[in-house]
TrEMBL record:
Stored InterPro entries: DUF2225, TPR-like_helical_dom_sf, TPR_rpt
TPR repeats: 170-203
Keywords: TPR repeat
Entry annotated with the keyword Transmembrane: no
Protein origin, superkingdom: Bacteria
Identification of the protein by name: DUF2225 domain-containing protein
Lineage: Bacteria, Bacillati, Bacillota, Bacilli, Bacillales
Pfam families per the UniProt record, alphabetical: DUF2225
Length: 228
């Protein structure tokens, strides 16, 4: 008997406290084929990115496992007025389409901003939304969310709110550099890649350093070619 990649998980909404079902993907069935320079994975078969966001069918709150259960003063009321009061109850359970996945991320970004989640978390949601638009070939929308992700990562780095969430200093510097490069902001890309190379001796993130060196070389060759 073939094992399905999907399984149901019962969640409790962190806002309304009601229970709802969400679909998850078995890790044993996930196979990454390639990875882009901004860590976008291409999967063989089912795409687990579709199922990272939980959407409460009762109140409309969209959140991930990284969302805090803490609500800053006034944020519950803001969520109620801006999201919950306009929500038509419906479920995101079961297999999701590409568009449903994008909807779930966009809703999570709005909820995360209202709830005042950390910049690094909002940046990750924006980056994954950009990846989903990349898969659809919608370049304008991809760029829009890459820009949003880059700006949030900058805020996160300046505030230091990335610490303790599985994001090392070199990785966030690299991502700011690489997203800037993809956006055509070569000056900013150069600044942040330089910081990665400056800190390489005190870091054990050898993969990030190697990726930076390869991109640095690529940028230098392109610059020489453009000048020539």
């Amino acid at each position: 008997m073939e094992i399905t990649p999907y399984y149901d998980k019962q969640m409790t909404c962190i806002h309304c406290q009601k229970k709802f079902n969400t679909t998850k993907i078995r890790k044993s069935t996930v196979k990454v084929v390639t990875t882009d320079s901004d860590f976008h994975p291409t999967y063989e078969g089912v795409n687990p990115l579709y199922y990272n966001v939980f959407v409460c069918e009762h109140c409309g709150l969209a959140f991930t496992e990284d969302f805090s259960t803490y609500f800053a003063p006034g944020t519950r009321e803001a969520l109620q007025s801006r999201i919950c009061n306009h929500w038509q109850p419906h479920s995101f359970d079961g297999e999701r389409t590409h568009n449903q996945a994008i909807q779930s991320y966009q809703l999570a970004i709005i909820c995360g901003e209202i709830k005042k989640e950390k910049n690094v978390l909002l940046a990750g949601l924006a980056l994954r939304t950009a990846w989903l638009y990349r898969e659809q070939g919608k370049t304008d929308w991809e760029i829009r969310f890459l820009e949003s992700a880059r700006d949030k990562y900058v805020e996160s780095y300046l505030q230091g709110d990335y610490q303790g969430l599985g994001m090392g200093e070199l990785k966030i510097l690299y991502l700011i550099g690489e997203l800037s490069r993809k956006l055509g902001d070569i000056d900013m890309a150069t600044r942040y890649f330089s910081r990665v190379l400056e800190k390489q001796r005190t870091s054990n993130e050898t993969r990030i350093v190697q990726m930076t060196k390869e991109i640095w070389q690529e940028m230098r060759e392109k610059k020489e070619k453009d000048i020539g």
